[in-house]
Design the sequence.
């Protein structure tokens, strides 16, 4: 919304890379999104770690126009709604989708979900 990469908003003035920062928490303490790093330039790349407790859901507003997201499920299973369709991404699998449209994450499983996510815009 500000036209500034998220990495620039959370980076200390003297730091090359921002310190990891929790920017979202769910109802359960095990559910969170942690911004890990960002690379500005001709295109911006952001690295995130997400955790969702069993039964937790996150509904995302669209990202900036042209943004694409690549994610990897490190633990658990992810119920992903993107591009108007639902799919389950299992542990060890990846998914890529345009995230400049509404999308959502949910943890339908019995154990914590951990996702590593890269947004490119």
Sequence:
């Amino acid at each position: 919304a500000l036209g500034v990469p998220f990495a620039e908003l959370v980076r200390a003035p003297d730091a090359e890379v921002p310190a990891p920062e929790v920017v979202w928490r769910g109802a359960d303490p095990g559910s969170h999104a942690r911004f890990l790093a960002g690379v500005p330039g001709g295109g911006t790349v952001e690295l995130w770690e997400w955790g969702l407790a069993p039964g937790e859901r996150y509904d995302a507003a669209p990202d900036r126009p042209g943004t694409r997201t690549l994610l990897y499920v490190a633990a658990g299973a992810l119920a992903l709604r993107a591009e108007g369709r639902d799919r389950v991404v299992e542990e060890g699998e990846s998914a890529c989708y345009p995230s400049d449209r509404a999308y959502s994450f949910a943890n339908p499983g019995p154990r914590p979900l951990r996702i590593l996510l890269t947004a490119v815009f």
